Amino acid sequence: MQISVGRSEEWAVIQTALLATLEQRFTHHMQRHPAQQWADVAVKLIANPDKLRSLQQMEQSGGEPDVVTFADDVGDYVFVDCAAQSPTGRRSLCFDREGLESRKEHPPQNSALDVAAAMGISLLTEEQYRQLQYLGEFDTKTSSWLATPASIRKLGGALYGDRRYDQVFVYHNGAQSYYAVRGFRGVLRV
């Protein structure tokens, strides 16, 4: 006879495994958050189960989230997708719903902004993306959609970034475009 595990028990197992993964990554990459202590981060995460669920989705989609110290931090712990390349489970997406709906042929399954909203996270800004690149080399073979100013989006464009030739580049593309190697990096404040 097989005993089914209740949803709360199942979540407890997932939460324990996620916290262990996050702690291991946190400890292994101290240069990303030199003034932070894992015990403090863990207490805040456990007190915010919705944020843990968002982190679980970031992890499941290949983001490898970790705490990153940004210049604009206001006392929150900031988790960012730190996978070397744009998360594999969040690629081939238009920038937003409007871009998706404007495609007449071969539309992708979703948009970066819709997926991020469903996960409870935001796209990195250009400034955050550049700061992240000081902590490692990211998107050397892929690219990531970035939060785009309304003035650019109003004209039909959207921003994305990558790292090539040991330089960080931020470009523009039509918001309706999508590529197999372009995804998005999320940011989550806890």
Helix-strand string: HHHEEHHEHEHEEEE
Radius of gyration: 17 Å
Number of domains: 1
Principal-axes shape call? globular
Q: Please identify the structural class as seen in this structure.
A: alpha+beta
Brief summary of the model shown:
The protein is an alpha+beta fold and 190 residues long. The protein has helices at residues 7-28, 38-46, 49-60, 97-102, 112-119, 126-133, 150-154; strands at residues 65-67, 78-81, 122-123, 143-146, 157-164, 167-174, 182-184, 186-189. The chain is globular, with a radius of gyration of 17 Å.
Notes on the structure:
The structure is a single chain. The protein has 7 helices and 8 strands; from the N terminus they run αααββααβαβαββββ. The chain is of the alpha+beta class and 190 residues long. The strands form 2 sheets. The chain has a 4-stranded antiparallel beta sheet with strand order 1-2-8-3. A 4-stranded mixed beta sheet has the order 6-5-4-7. The radius of gyration is 17 Å and the shape is globular.
